[in-house]
Write a structure and sequence with these properties.
With 390 residues, the protein is an alpha+beta fold. The protein has two domains: 5-70 and 101-177 and 269-346, FAD/NAD(P)-binding domain, CATH 3.50.50.60; 182-267 and 353-386, D-Amino Acid Oxidase, Chain A, domain 2. It is built from twelve helices and 20 strands. The protein has helices at residues 12-23, 36-40, 50-58, 63-68, 88-91, 102-116, 236-246, 249-254, 298-319, 323-350, 358-373, 375-386; strands spanning 5-8, 28-31, 47-48, 70-72, 74-79, 82-87, 97-99, 119-121, 125-130, 138-143, 146-151, 154-157, 175-190, 200-202, 209-215, 218-225, 260-274, 277-278, 281-283, 289-290. It has an eight-stranded mixed beta sheet with strand order 6-5-14-15-16-13-17-20. Helix 11 crosses helix 12 (375-386). The longest helix is centred in the last third of the chain and has 28 residues, at 323-350. It starts with a strand and ends with a helix. Bound molecules: flavin-adenine dinucleotide (FAD) and 3,4-dihydroxybenzoic acid (DHB). Flavin-adenine dinucleotide is lined by residues 8-14, 31-34, 39, 44-47, 102, 124, 127, 158-160, 162-164, 185, 187, 266, 285-286, 293, 296-300, 302. 3,4-dihydroxybenzoic acid (DHB) binds at residues 45-47, 199, 210, 212, 220, 293-296.
Length: 390
C-alpha cells in the first residue's frame, strides 16, 4: 500500500491531523494498535482552548461540540477555606474555554473520518517506522498474523507517550527532559449535576482536588492520591468523603453524589523530547511531550502541534516548499515549553508534596492569595489557561 502520510496512532492528534489532511486532499492512513471501542473508553481531557476548537472547526468535526460543549468564562481557585473566581473572559479581553470531553472529540473525529472514506486500521500490532532518514520511508504492522507495509512520503508519530515512534529514533539524536511527580490523580465520573457551574481547582492540606464536568448532568471529579493507591480501595463513599474534606464548606455542603461509572488513577509527569522532527518522521502530541493535567494543556498542545505540522505539510504539497516542515520542531517546541512551565507551576502550587510542611502550605496559600488579588498575576494565569496563541 502507498499513501502520502502514514499516521501512527488514532488518538486526538492522529485523528485531527488525518482529518485536516483529508480536507486538504492529502492522502493518509491511520494505524492504531487497539480497537475503536477501547479508544472511546478512555476518559481523559475535558477543557478545550479556542485554538483547539478552531482546528476542530477546520476539520469539520465540531458540529456536536458547538451544540453540546459548555463555554466557560471563568473558574475558581479554592484554598484556605475560601474560593476566588478567575474571570477568564474579562482578564483576556473576551477569551473563554469550552468544556467538552476528549472522548467526544475523538468520537466526532472518527465519525467525520469514516464519512470521508479515509482508511483507519485498528488492532494493528507492532507498527514500526522504517528508513525515515531516507527519501523512501515506510511503516510495517501486523494484523491477523500477516505483516503489512505502507510506503509513504512522511510518517507522523501520533502514538502517545508509550508509542513506537519515539522509540524508533536512535538515542544519539534525541534528548529528553523529564520530571515525575510523587502523586497521581484519582478521577471519577458520575451522572449527577456538577457542584458548581464552573471548574474548581482546590488546594488543601490533605491534597489537591478538582471539580469538573462533562455536561449539566455529568460530573468529573479528581482528588490527588498517592502512587501506591489502588482504585479498588476507593469505594464511592470514600471518594465523596475525601472530596468534601478538600473543598470549602459551602461547596462541600452543596456536593451531590451518585454512583460512579468510571474511576481510574493517572500518574503525573512532565516530559519533553527534542527535537520533534527526524527527517521524515515527526513526533506529535503525547508522543513528544507530556504535561501533568493541572491546567488542562495536554490535548490542547497536541492540537497546536497538529496545526504546525499540517500547515507545513500543506505548504510542502501545494507550494513545493519545505520551509514549514523545516520549522515544525522549533515552532512546536517554543509553545510546548511554555505549557510545560505553566502546568508544572499550577501543579506545584496546588498539590501537597511528600515534603510539604506547615511552612510550605502557608507559602502556597500566600501565592494563591497574591494570584487571586493581583490583576497582573491573575491576567498571567488567565492568558496561559485560555491558551497562548499559535
Ligand atoms: P493519545 O491520546 O495517547 O493517543 C495515542 C494513540 O496511539 C492511542 O490511541 C494509542 O492506542 C495509539 N498507540 C500507542 N502506541 C501505538 C503503537 N505502537 N502503534 C499504533 N498505535 C499506537 N489535556 C487537555 O488538553 N485538557 C485536559 O483537560 C486534560 N485532562 C486530562 C486528564 C487526565 C486524567 C489525563 C490522563 C490526561 C488529560 N489531558 C488533558 C491530556 C490529554 O488526554 C492528552 O494530552 C491527549 O490524549 C494526547 O493525545 P494524543 O493523540 O497525542 O495521544
Ligand atoms: C479536566 C481535566 C483537567 O486536567 C483539568 O485541568 C480540567 C478538567 C477534566 O477532565 O474535566
Amino acid at each position: 500500500m502507498r499513501t502520502q502520510i502514514a499516521i501512527i496512532g488514532s488518538g486526538p492528534s492522529g485523528l485531527l491531523l488525518g482529518q485536516l489532511l483529508t480536507e486538504a486532499g492529502i492522502d493518509n492512513v491511520i494505524l492504531d494498535r487497539v480497537g475503536k471501542d477501547y479508544i472511546l473508553g478512555r476518559v481523559r481531557a475535558g477543557v478545550l482552548e479556542e485554538g483547539t476548537v478552531g482546528l476542530l472547526d477546520e476539520a469539520r468535526s465540531a458540529f456536536r461540540l458547538h451544540a453540546e460543549g459548555l463555554p466557560h468564562d471563568g473558574f475558581s481557585l479554592a484554598f484556605d477555606g475560601r474560593d476566588h473566581r478567575i474571570d477568564l473572559y474579562e482578564l483576556t479581553g473576551g477569551k473563554r474555554v469550552t468544556v467538552y470531553g476528549q472522548t467526544e472529540v475523538t468520537r466526532d473525529l472518527m465519525i467525520t473520518r469514516e464519512a470521508s472514506g479515509a482508511l483507519t486500521v485498528y488492532d494493528a500490532a507492532n507498527a514500526t517506522p522504517h528508513d525515515f532518514d531516507s527519501s523512501s520511508p515506510y511503516v510495517t504492522y501486523e494484523k491477523d498474523g500477516v505483516t503489512h507495509r505502507i510506503d509513504c512520503d512522511f510518517i507522523a508519530g501520533c502514538d502517545g507517550f508509550h508509542g513506537a515512534s519515539r522509540k524508533a529514533v536512535p538515542e544519539k539524536v534525541i534528548r529528553t527532559f523529564e520530571k515525575v511527580y510523587p502523586f497521581g490523580w484519582l478521577g471519577l465520573l458520575a451522572d449527577v449535576a456538577p457542584v458548581n457551574h464552573e471548574l474548581i481547582y482546590a488546594n488543601h492540606p490533605r491534597g489537591f482536588a478538582l471539580c469538573s464536568m462533562r455536561s449539566a448532568t455529568r460530573s468529573r471529579y479528581y482528588i490527588q492520591c498517592s502512587l501506591d493507591e489502588k482504585v479498588e480501595d476507593w469505594s464511592d463513599d470514600r471518594f465523596w468523603d475525601e472530596l468534601r474534606r478538600r473543598l470549602p464548606t459551602h461547596h462541600a455542603q452543596a456536593l451531590k453524589t451518585a454512583p460512579s461509572f468510571e474511576k481510574s488513577i493517572a500518574p503525573l509527569r512532565s516530559f519533553v523530547a527534542e527535537p520533534m522532527r527526524f527527517d521524515r518522521l515527526f513526533l506529535v502530541g503525547d508522543a513528544a511531550h507530556i504535561v501533568p493535567p493541572t491546567g488542562a494543556k495536554g490535548l490542547n498542545l497536541a492540537a497546536s502541534d497538529v496545526h504546525y505540522l499540517f500547515e507545513g505539510l500543506r505548504e510542502f504539497y501545494d507550494a513545493r516548499s519545505s520551509a514549514g516542515i523545516d520549522a515544525y520542531s522549533q515552532k512546536a517546541l517554543a509553545r510546548v515549553w511554555k505549557a510545560v512551565r505553566f502546568s508544572w507551576w499550577m501543579t506545584t502550587m496546588m498539590h501537597r508534596f511528600p515534603d510539604t510542611g506547615d511552612f510550605d502550605q502557608k507559602i502556597q496559600e500566600a501565592e494563591l492569595d497574591y494570584l487571586t488579588h493581583s490583576r497582573a498575576a491573575s491576567t498571567a494565569l488567565a492568558e496561559n489557561y485560555v491558551g497562548l496563541p499559535f
